[in-house]
Structure formats: structure tokens, C-alpha cells
Amino acid sequence: MWKLSGLLLAAPVLWPQSPKYQIGRAPLDTDLKERDISVLAGGRGLPPGSGTAAAGKDVYSRRCQKCHGNSGQGGEEGPALVGGKGSLATPKPVKTVGSYWPHATTLFDYTRRAMPFNRPGTLSNDEVYSSSAYVLFLNGIIGENDVMDAKTLPAVKMPNRDGFIKDARPDTSARGATKRAPVPHPAKSGP
Amino acid sequence: MEARRRFLGVTTALAGALAGCSGGNTQQAAADADTEPSLLGKVPSDYGNRSPHEKSKRTYADSKTPQAGSSRTPLQDSYGIITPNSLHFERHHAGVPEIDPAKHTLLVHGMVDRPLVLSVADIKRLPSVSKVYFVECSGNSGGEWSGKGAPDAQRSHGLASCSEWTGVPLSLILSEAGIRKDARWLLAEGADACKMARSIPVEKAVGDTLVAYAQNGEAIRPEQGYPLRLIVPGWEGNINVKWLHRIHAAEEPFYTKDETSKYTDLMADGKARIFTFDMDAKSVITAPSGGQKIAGKGFQEITGLAWSGRGRIEKVEVTTDGGKTWTAAQLQEPRFPRAFTRFRMPWTWDGSEASLACRATDESGYVQPPRQVLVEARGLNSNYHCNAIKFWKVQADGSVTNVEA
């Protein structure tokens, strides 16, 4: 998107500024309150409330452990949340909150909108802060009594924060493909 | 039974004709016709079904959490370029919600001058467009990365389908909301239980993205996002947010779970590509394909599907000798950009083993690569966006099987 952003900056206005069709209505405060759960990586949108790993241990055991295992190792119904550090460049990468996720805000956002799997949206903001804190603590990223809230959570430096790069495709040349076409796939079992 | 019925029908008609000719006992003939079984077919019905002889269906894997699962389109049974709605692949993250369209609304807010709440009825009043586009999960053909490959086209390529979508350009809705010039990204969010959400660059949103409410001439099916969904042409399926109920304009992406933890492509060096939206050119032979059997020597059309997220399909080449020689196939017209293109090639099977494959070229000049080229570029850990050339082996007995790399 980096290149597209550049294009946009150079482009003239892409949309008319006057309403044409006279449809819809302005949202009420209640519309936004009920529905707007967006969180940005810088922390905008994070709600009031707070939690620590110490408090989150209880939330985790009641609402998370059944699927994610008693220490976040994962189970049949939920992926591992912990571990995998140093595994990303190996033949068996383990992508967890600790080893892979670039932003701590994503952990809060996803837990609030989608967890627990069968009862999403039922955790209080404090429960989301504290269970997020517990998962960060299990990964060795924060301390047991570090308070996570709208200010501290976005400031957490995730281990893989710089592990993402922009899309480099197309990354196979047409020429290369044509040259190699006769070789690989059928070589073993083809005629 | 059928033959007997036909025989009875002929004799009844004959009897009637004779009776009419001779001017004899026509009352007796009418009475016979009343007591004999009707030869007529079924009466009209309020909603159609396919023939009971047709068994093609979606398949899905057993799971402890099937609500976060997928089903696959039986591409090996497909004709032309349109996927029947009942066979369109599914990918859900928290099950299919039940939504009353009279209560459903789309909230547009954030960096807009006029935040809006639009009902489904509001959206249906707006100028509409119908466009043919494929939707493909970027995890489609993920099993091909390993080189083992899946045994049939449904399991190797069935997370892709193609429909005519009807709806309103998202650009129009964003104009009405007065999106601000400094807005760069939109969050699109569904009304499913997990509120699945993805960030979309504004350039694509005001480009060809649609807010769709119909698919192949009927309302979008619940499992496809009823009553509203995004269609983001040529981009990975996950970003085509279903059950769309909120659009939030901002200056930066939101880094949701499904654009960080998932749907990012891990390279061999441990770095991961993020926001890998485009679906590259891809193709698969659907017949004869894995799991099918050619009845015997002789003419056997080779046919399949090709598509590219970067535009029109310009060429599909087919090989029957394992890639030694390639021949351009016929392409079905019209060819729509970012839609399935049906290709066909006449072939006479001589009864010996054959190795079949197809290779698509799109209008950007991109040529679908062999698996080894992809592996060299990205390693074996990227999971998503596998668009490798797919080979099928025709055995001497006519059965068609997967080819391991």
C-alpha cells in the first residue's frame, strides 16, 4: 500500500463532497456506542478499564483455558498463545501472540470482539485487559503486576514488532516460469 | 415400467383415434383414459431443485469448531464460469449469523464529514451495478505448498468460486458520507459473532469495491453474507467481509487479528509479508481431473478454469506430456477481469499414461509459475497464496490422480 498511498497523495479529489441521494440518517450516540469497537495500534479506541496478569489468571482459567490449555500451549479447539520464539525461520514455525503478533492492541481487540469462541462479546473491558495481560505475561513480555490499560497496552513492544515486510509480489518472473516449466512437478511421477 | 407406460399411452391414443374415425363408442374410450395413470410430469413449484440424479456437493473437514471452518466448491463438476450459489465455497470464523434484513444497517463513520447509518432498503435504492468476479480464499491450494497435493480439484482448488454480484459501488457510499481526503484506510466489519474485521486501503475502496446484496440473480445467501457483503475484486477472500455492518475510515490500518496473526505470509528468513491482497494468476484443469476416470480411448475434451486478481486472463496453455510441450487452449468469451475464465482444448486420449497441466497468463503479463519457482521465492512456510501449476496424471486405465512434486 505504500506505493498506492503515494498515488493518492498526488491524485485530485476522488469523491464529490456534496451528498447526492439524500439517503440514510446520521448515527445516534447509541449506534456508535453499541457498534464502534475499533482499536488502532496507537491505542485510539481502547476503552476505560485496566487489568494485570495476576487478575487475568483467574479470567483465563474460567474463560480461555478450556481451548488454549492451562499455560497457553493450545489444545484441540484453540491455537497456542505462548511460545515459538525463534521458530519463525525454521522448518516448523510456531506463530503465537509472543512469537508473531506485531501489536499488543490486536490482542485486546481480538479478545474483545471474538473471544471466548462460543460466547464472543461477553467479557468486560477489565476482563479483556487482564486476560490480555496474562497472555503477555505468559510470553515473558510484561510483568505479573504490570497494569494494562488504554495507555500502557499500546506501549508494549511486541517481540516481532519489526517482523513484517510489504508485499513483494509479483516475485516470480514470467521468464523464469517459462524456462522452468518443463522441469519440476511431473519429474518424479510424470511420463 | 417406463416402456410399459409409453406402450399404454400409444395404445390409448390409438384407441381414441380409431374410435374417432369409426364414430364408435367414444364414451368408453374417455372412461379408460380417466382410470389409467397420468403420463404427465410434475407441476410447477415455488422453488426449484436440481435433478435427484445430480450429486455434486461441497465438502468440509471434520472439526471440533466447525463454525470456524470452510467448505469447498466441487470445481471438478463445474461448467462455464458461474458457481451455483448453493455450491459457492464457505469460510466462516464464528458461524453463519441469522440476520433480519429489516433490522440490519451499515454504519459509516470515522474520518467522514457526514457519518451515516444506511438500511438495506436505503442501499437498494442507489444506482446499482452487476459484475462477475471470483472470490478466492488466500489459503486455497495451501496444501500444495508441501508438494504432496490434494487428490482432486475440489480439495486442491475448491476455496474459489465465481458469481455475478449486484450491489452499489462503495465509492458512492463513501461519497455520500463525505470521506475525508486524509483518510487512508477503512475498517470493514461483519455482524457475525466474532465481528470479523479487515482493513482496506481507501484507493481500493473507491476503486472497484462493491457493497453487494445479490449473487447470481438472487439475494446473497446467508453463508455468503446476507444481506450485505463487500466484494473486493481480485483480493483475497477474507477481505470480502460478509454480513457487512460497519465501515470505519481512519488514517492507518487497524492491524486486526486476520491481517497480522493470519493472512500474512511467512518467508524463509522469518519475516512475514503483510497486506498481501492480490490473488495471482492461477488455473486448474477441472476435467479430466483427480478422482475422475476417462471412459476409454478417443476424444476427451480437456477443460478448466483460470483467473487472476490482477485483471483478465489472456492465455491458458495446456500440456499433456508433463510440460514438454504446451498448447494454447480456447478461452470462453467474454472474459471478465478478476473472474473465472473457462478454457477448453480438444484432445484425443491414446490410452497411455499422460501428465496434464495448465498454465495461465494474465493481462499484466504474469505467468503462473511452477511450484518450485514459488518455493525458491518464498520458502515453505508461507501457507497462503499458492498459485502453482497443478498436474494431474492420467493412468493407463483412464483414472486420473494427483501428482506429487
Report on the structure:
The complex is a heterodimer of chains A (191) and B (405). Chain A is mainly alpha-helical. Chain A has a domain of 119 residues: Orthogonal Bundle (Cytochrome Bc1 Complex, Chain D, domain 2). Chain A has 7 helices and 3 strands. The longest helix of chain A is centred in the C-terminal third of the chain and has 14 residues. The N terminus of chain B is likely disordered. Chain B has a 5-stranded mixed sheet with strand order 5-4-13-8-9. Chain B has 2 domains: 190 residues, Sulfite Oxidase, Chain A, domain 2 (Alpha-Beta Complex), CATH 3.90.420.10; 121 residues, Immunoglobulin-like (Sandwich). Classes of the chains: A mainly alpha (191), B alpha+beta (405). At the A-B interface, α1, α2, α5, β3 and α7 of A face β4, β5, α5, α6 and β13 of B.
Main traits of this protein?
heterodimer; A: 191 residues; mainly alpha; two-stranded antiparallel sheet; 3 strands; globular; disordered N terminus; disordered C terminus; B: 405 residues; alpha+beta; Sulfite Oxidase, Chain A, domain 2; Immunoglobulin-like; five-stranded mixed beta sheet; five-stranded antiparallel beta sheet; 26 strands; 29% strand
* Number of helical elements of chain B: 7
Main pleated sheet of chain B: 5 strands, mixed
Calculate the terminal CA-CA distance of chain B, rounded to whole Å: 52 Å
From the helix content, strand content and strand pairing of chain A, which structural class follows? mainly alpha
Q: Greatest chain-chain interface?
A: A-B, 74 and 104 residues
Largest sheet report of chain A? 2 strands, antiparallel
The third-level CATH topology of the largest domain in chain B is Sulfite Oxidase, Chain A, domain 2
Radius of gyration of chain A: 23 Å
Q: Which CATH architecture of the largest domain in chain B would you pick? A: Alpha-Beta Complex
Give the CATH H-level superfamily of the largest domain in chain B: Oxidoreductase, molybdopterin-binding domain
- The general outline of chain B is globular
Oligomer: heterodimer
Number of helices of chain A: 7
Radius of gyration of chain B: 26 Å
Low-confidence stretches of chain A: 1-18, 175-191
